[in-house]
Amino acid sequence: MPSPDPSVQIQTVTKRFDSVTAVDGVSLEIAGGEFFALLGPSGCGKTTLLRLIAGLEEPDAGTIRIQGSDVTRVPPHRRPVNMVFQHYALFPHLTVEENVAFGLRYKPLPRAGHAARVAETLALVRLAEYGKRRPDQLSGGQRQRVALARALVLEPQVLLLDEPLAALDPNLRKEVQVELKSLQRTLGITFVFVTHDRQEALAMSDRIAVMNGGRVEQVGSPAQVFEAPETELVARFLGATNVFTAEARRHEDGILSLQLPGGTEFSVPAGGPARLRREPVRFVVRPEKLALRAVPAPSEISLAVTVEDRVYHGASTEWTVRDARGERYAVFAQNAGLAGEALPFAPGSPAFLGWDPRHSVVLRES
Amino acid sequence: MPDFPKELPRKPGRAAYPLLLPTWLVLGIFFLVPLGLMFAVSFAERGTYGGLKPIADLGAYVRSGAFLGNYARSMGAIYLKIGWRSLWMALLTTVLCLVVSFPIAYYLAILAPRRWKGLLIGLVVVPFWTSFLIRTYAWMFILRTEGLINLILMGTGLLHHPLELLYTQTAVLIGLVYGELPFMILPLYASLEKLDRSLLEAASDLGAGRRQSFWRITVPLSLPGIVAGLVLVFIPSLGQFVVSDLLGGARSMLLGNLIQNQFAVARNKPFGSALAFELTAAVLLLLVAYAVYARRRGGEELL
Amino acid sequence: MTGGGWHRRLLAAHTALVYLFLYAPIAILVVFSFNSARQTAFWEGFTLDWYRRLLDNALLFRSVRNSLIVAGITTAVAVLLGTPAALALARLQFRGKRSTQALLYLPVIIPEVVLGAALVTFFGAVEMRLSLWTVVIAHVVFSVSYVAIVVRARLAGLDPALAEAARDLGAGPFETFRRVTLPLAAPGIAASALLVFTLSIDDYVVTSFVAGVGATTLPLHIYSMLKVGVTPEVNAVSTLLLAGTVVLIVLAHRLLSAETGDSK
To answer: Which domain holds residue C238?
Structure first.
């Protein structure tokens, strides 16, 4: 949906490397002040897209606008965009201060003002006393903050981050997630970051674009892509691996009636073009929305299954079950039982898979 | 510095041309042209005073086959003998270097204590930086009839007549091995250094004894280094001039000496040029073979 | 795989012998440069005479001066030509890249006798008189290749993200080169300069073909001394040269490890 003040507008941008199409006709709009994530598996084109915004790659087709101006053919050093590289790319022959001050030379600010600006930004990332150190004397987390400071000191309109948490110690990641989020809120500028980790994307972003094979599969808030995936790819990537097939009965006024193989009928809200009678329709139900029952519950859709596997995850348990036709489904439940109580539904036992029909998310077929 | 356009160039490589132009010019004029010239000269005949004999009818000259005169002459017995000798010397030098270098490269790469590695490898490299002439002269000093070896042998009464060590093929061989040794040790060391020790441990775990591990794991994996060393030693040895001039005699004349002789003494540029090209062809052939080998293996660069 | 005790000791002994083989001849040269005996290796007494004789040798000094001039000019020209070439090869894709690489490798590969012969033929054909300048030209031809190869290797080892970061931060292509690429490539450039300087000072074969009268370089002078025969003066010259080389190596090592913080 076009917003009043789009920060970044990408219009049908394509980028090819020899015979590989890394970005395939992608269109995207990122609003000002948004914390936006490009999420997807490796090779999906998210990093290429980021580099296209930065200007480090030139698109073969399409346009890119930043704050309304067409920057498609503008080289990176003239764009109001700055990037934090995945491995930080700090200049080894310069001190922290010199690294941060690097780009100030190309701004209208007179030399006299550089030191103050650098000090201010270093304080912002809590590295005030590290100015005279060299990059090889810093820890990974500190280096990231220098890379951040180096970009932020130039007051870009958009800040790009390439897998910002990937190179950090796992224990540091949570802390940095919180820091980045609060930094963005303080500064109010648009952050666009690339990640393959869905937890990161869900926790930090205002909106997520899920990408695969050079295309954007779905754009939405974390809740939207998580709870209401539109395609099987998005569903699977976000962990909604339970795909069911049903037959369409009637599709009117946005309500779709479906019939499961076993005969059960139910209705579900579904947009998009009208489905034809008897047309196969696929929908997903997230593992945590499924429940295992000893007897089918009347308000739920039920499916007879056999438990195949059960894995204890401490705070939760995950079951893998199999229906009469051999299809497998994953069920996720919080462990709310008492200590010492045996877990229900051991492998091999029969059970009923039940869920509230409203938790069925119809997939858009490509 | 080149004038970069305001926007990104459509073809990213165009900036390369101004950067390379001076080098292309210098190498083109002072390298390619001289080589081409020499190639042309190799088909001419020696003139009376050392220049080129003028050719009256070029067509007839070519048709009669006379233009191949120098190449045909180089196939003569005397010259072939020199060629084979050069080949044999280069081969012998290479094999000796390999045999001597492998154990030391192995020791330095795998067994030497880490603290000393840098220093030890540095000590192998230092001779490379010193004058080749001087290092060859050192052997002149040692091997001559009044030299150190004979002095010791006669002094201790083992011999009564000095050994004719200098001006022999053996002396040339020693000089060659002495000069080329660092060039064999370094690539071997580089290759062995990269050897993953855990592979040897795995082999041992699977039942291979020390000798078997060596032949089935260490040697195959260090093969790129071995081949690089062979190339780095064999090729310069083929074209060797200084060592055979200083340490060798008339009986150990090599191809390099022959060529120099044609230019400096015999003043037969055409014949010398033909010989030079034959040597170059041999070298290029070997390098192409090496390049094919390297490409098939994929990866390690020679230089 | 650590061998049994005796394996290790055998290899260590072999290594020691190789070092002995490498350094003994040099050591012998140095020691005997102080020997007062003229003709024989028999030690007759310590003397500095041979060194004193060198000081009187005007020709020797002229040849040293010539060598330094040639090496200096060669190094400067080779670095000025080879560094941009290395930059182009390391960073850019262009038509003719493969042939350029082959062209740069050739002077290093071709046997020195062939190069010398080709150049003297060329100078003869264009009627250029042999002089110190023809020596410089010859040295530049093979030196450019060495510079291009070494500097290119150094550039290839640099993180490409650094140049990208510089551009992202506002530096245009020239600024990026000046403030990031060049400082980081400097150790490689310095190393290549040292390499070609040494190669030029030490070169005999190519120089012997193209040096004119009065353009005698140090190796040429030494060679003529060697051909005359073994004399202690040659030992003395050799020792001095060795000393100079060692000083240069130590200096270079200090410089390079100070720059990058690592060794060699």
So the answer is: 23-56+230-264
